[in-house]
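Fold this complex.
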Amino acid sequence: MKLVTVCGPPSSGKTAVILKALEAFADRGLKAGVVKFDCLSTEDDVLYEKAGIPVKKGLSGPLCPDHYFVSNVEEIVQWGRSQGFDLLVSESAGLCNRCSPHIKEVLAVCVVDNLSGVTTPKKIGPMLKMADIVVITKGDIVSQAEREVFASRVAAVNPKAAVLHVNGLTGQGAFELSSLFDDEEREVESLIGYQLRFTMPSALCSYCLGETRIGESYQMGNVRKMKID
Amino acid sequence: MINEIKNQTVGALLESYPFAAVYFDGHHVDTKGRESSTVVDVFSDFVTAAGEDAVTTADELLEGLSEHVQQMLLFLADDLDTVQSLGLLPGTHKDGTPENFTNITINSGETICIVGPTGSGKSRLLADIEWIAQGDTPTGRTILLNDQIPDRKWRFSPTHKLVAQLSQNMNFVMDLTVQEFLEMHAESRLADNVRDVVVRIIDQANALAGESFAPTTPITSLSGGQSRALMIADTAILSRSPIVLIDEIENAGIDRQKALQLLLSEEKIVLMATHDPVLALMGGRRLIIANGGIEAVIETTENERVILKELAVMDRRMTDLRNRLRRGERLE
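Structure:
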């Protein structure tokens, strides 16, 4: 089974892009499934079900969504294999822009949108900088100049990535994205022993364990203070 | 390339490749005061200083920088300007029947119109061109550049976009003045005479728009016609894409004939999806799209050109009346 991790800021169009790409994937007679990782709630699983795509939903609740992702991804891979998928797509939101779910030796996609502003590529960390494919969405509503500036900023922070423009509404570019999924040669039987491309956030302070009170005397564990002159 | 740039000083590197500054900035590497240090030292120090916050290793930064420099050099090498013609070889309609043409060649400085109802396959045609289809898309079409099978790099490279698009729904979203906006675009295109280019675009846009605007006008407060005019002038002059796709040009507040002439004078290949007779008849040929494929290619006839002349007169009269209304004049 092929595996691809898709991530990107909230509302950048990840689900729409995946739906359109998997539609083109299914037209080739191939079977794909999706796992959607989110924090508190998501209704995207309904959208996948409607499109006839098998989906699993994982909500991290009070836990760090990225830690939750990495703790469950192997089980999800085994689910995908048991379903006989040709391709499994893992979709997760990059909520704080710091982390990325990308795994070494596994195809990594980052979705960003033209409306998020030209400084965004610089602000997004490893999920953009370490992706193999960057998908830029919402190009149908901004000017040609803004699209060009945005794409050049993406290329400046991740010169190695293939950059694709996909319209999540009309599906323009989605067929092309699906052909890149199809070109992927690496098959994954199990992720045991694989490594993340970038470390997860380090934590374990009193707030991780449910503390709500503010003040130094309540802060224990891995705590970092701002430098204020 | 890595070895070549690794031991150069940052100052020397930026002197030979000024565009590399964007890479340092994008990765938050401050080069101020470090001009005489080598690139590898600056990256190592940066990674050490970042400690556990470091996103990349010094080697990865070097590799990325080298990739960035190579891409930009390719971009500057200018093979975009060498696209003289776009060729289409037939594929099939949605139902699998072959398309009704043998081959279509469109040369730079030429306009071709695309007509057909919504959902007939206009978007797919454009996507085939953008993707340089080689029989590997749902239509099975083949796209040629300069009568040859083009390099695959056109597919993914952000700096080698083949097609620029202009459509009705497009808006400016940045919070910048016209001047700042154009400067930013010119810099990203590595234009060497930013100042002149910006002046030229503003002049051309004002020649197209019914109402003129100043360089200090915020782009988000331009009227619909002014925005459209600025987008067209900017695409004609600054965009490196040799092919321009236009999805209707609204007729309010802009001189459409001049707009098209501007694009053609910049040697663009113009594909125009439109059902407006004035625009449709301006093209030498029309592609009729139906059922997912190209149903026919028809040439604009002499009689149609006569109709175009009549329409152009009416069009100018409408524009003139609109401008007089705007100025608060009576129309009688």
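The longest strand of chain B covers residues 293-299.
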